[in-house]
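Researcher: Going back to the complex we discussed earlier. I've cleaned up the inputs and rechecked each line, so this should be the final set. Can you rerun the prediction on the complete assembly and write out the structure?
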Amino acid sequence: MSDYGSGSAPSPPVRDLAAEALEAGHNPYATVLVAADGSVLYEARNQVSSSDRTRHPEFEVARWAAANLPPDARATATVYTSGEHCAMCSAAHAWAGLGRIVYAASTAQTDGWRKEFGGHPSPVARLPITQVIVDADVDGPVEAFSEELRELHRRRHTRDT
Ligand code: ZN
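Model: Rerun complete. Updated structure for the full complex:
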């Protein structure tokens, strides 16, 4: 799993996990938590087709980290994620004391795709990470992945109609 160590882009496993989430009937989002040495600590994919709409992978990662990692390991870890954190997940990330975030698609992009493909609007204000986390260390979007992610979102929203 050394491909996470030095790059700034979410590696293929994040995209593969997002596609897996879609195949399993959920929204196409996934998150991988990577230690300072480049090793993968935890992976999560979206599970919101259950009745619990809080089952975002970024939230799962923050809760796992809070329960399983000492504070210094959380602070030096990087969260690679397919979509920019929502306000709930940004807050969980900050409360858990996690470090850098690298996201592939921005909230503005995923909102645009949702609109384009006729998806339901979010009931939560669409705040960027930098408006929720004080002094956020964040990189994104990663344009190289945007067509691939747009296609996953197209499949997600056209499945509903
Ligand atoms: Zn979220």
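Model: Worth noting: Residues 44 and 60 are 7 Å apart (CA to CA).
Researcher: Good, that matches what I expected from the previous run.
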